[in-house]
Amino acid sequence: MINLYRALKKKMMLPMIFIVLFTMAFLFDDLSSIAQGYLNILQSPSVLISDYLHIGGLGATLFNVATIMLINILMLRALKLKMSGPIFAGLLTIAGFSFFGKNIFNTIPIYFGIYLHARHQRLPFKSFIIVVLFSTGISPIVSFLIFGTGWPYYIGIPAGTAAGILTGFTLPAISAHVIRFHKGYNLYNIGFAMGILSMLYAAILTTLFGFDLFVFESTTSEAYHTELLVLTLILSGIFIASGFINDPHVLKKYPKLLNSTGRLVSDFIRDAGRDISMVNVGVMGLISVLAITVLRIQINGAVMGGILTVMGFGAFGKHPRNSIPVMLGASIWFLLSPIVTGEEAGVGLAIAVLFVTAVAPIAGRFGIFLGIFAGFVHIVLTPFTYVFQGGFDLYNNGFAAGFVAALLVPVFEFLTKKKEVEEGEA
User: Fold this and answer.
1) Alpha-carbon dihedral sign for residues 179, 181, 184, 187
2) Cβ(285)–Cβ(239) below 8 Å
3) Cβ neighbours for 245, distance < 8 A, ≥ 6 positions apart
4) Which of 264, 302, 352, 367 is least surrounded by CB atoms within 10 angstroms?
């Protein structure tokens, strides 16, 4: 048993998670159902929000998640990269969005584009690994051009593949530039970069080709709420237990992690240690479960994607101290929305309660009350950014978070500096 624990510590348990997901896929569905469901997933336009639980069923979706995780784990092994906070966050984000929008078919062209970028820059491919892991948030552009346009495959396949490669080729340069826009207070920086690219694609497809990008139904499935809730609790428990198994006194390290603002680049594995980072990952999973339970949100593919993303960033910028305030701010609008608008809060608002943690560093830097305000602004703004990017950027909350940070951080900096000056004069 001791050797097993040491192996889990060294490998970060990700291969074990792949095995669990792969096994669970065949527990819920038979082979023929998984095969048909997986084919449906691969042929989906995959624009936001394409819930693979509705499109392919639970078994096929878990198979999709496990398959993409395996490919990325093998890629990391081949590149001989050590686990870090950003890499861990990238892997769990990939797993999360494989519940709605990502599949092997629409991710490979983007990876190849980044590889070409690395060759063009004469740099090793592994130096762009963070961009690689988060790049497939814009993968729907590939699937849409192939399966969503109605074009024959001899046009759609080359067009989708070319768009994916071009996106991958340009994304590293854009993501490196836009971080200045929000000063590192948007943890989903690459999501913001992809939002800009998606906005361009949406404009081209709308004005030049006449596509109506908002005719696609965003039908979700909440039929597997209980199963996915249990899965989340199991995963959270595994991460928390692993930290205590490796170090019974691991909580002594938690204050150091909690004192971090979370601002990019906050690598908790590097700065606070792997054990406490894994405990924090599990805690963030439990906080997510608590939030959706209190707000009576049913888990569908998109919500599950949000949960896993929040957990992943538990190693890369998110912790209870900076995440709870912004989640509270988002929850206020989620609860007020039916009263103000007269309509029931939709899935977009539901997932924004989780993805609002993209701006967690604002609360980490400026405190609870300004963090609550930032969370409120974020969830109000998010539906409007979707209109601009046409559903091609799965990280729409990252797109919105870039604007929230760019708008609020200068104001908050001014207010806090003024307060510091007044306190100094007193």
Assistant:
1) negative
2) yes
3) 5, 8, 9
4) 367
pLDDT tens profile 12-51 = 566 777 777 788 888 888 899 999 999 999 999 999 889 9
What φ, ψ does residue 392 adopt, rounded to 5°?
Answer: -85, -25
Determine the number of helices (DSSP H) and then strands (DSSP E) in the chain: 21, 0
HSE-CB of 337 using CA atoms within 13 angstroms = 23
- Please check whether residue 131 is in contact with residue 158, taking contact to mean a CB–CB distance below 8 angstroms: no
Amino acid at 132: V
Q: Is residue 298 helix, strand or coil?
A: coil
| Pairwise CA distance, residues 49 & 24, whole Å | 24
Q: What is the pLDDT of residue 29?
A: 87
At CB < 8 A and 24+ separation, what contacts does 93-96 make? 93/133, 93/134, 93/308, 93/309, 93/312, 93/313, 94/68, 94/69, 94/133, 94/136, 95/17, 95/21, 95/65, 95/68, 95/69, 95/308, 95/312, 96/304, 96/305, 96/306, 96/307, 96/308, 96/309, 96/312
Alpha-carbon torsion 125, 128, 130, 136, what sign? negative
- Of the candidates 111, 69, 106, the one whose C-alpha atom is nearest the C-alpha of residue 312 is 69
Cβ distance 366 to 416 under 8 Å? yes
Indicate the domain borders of the chain.
2-207, 225-415
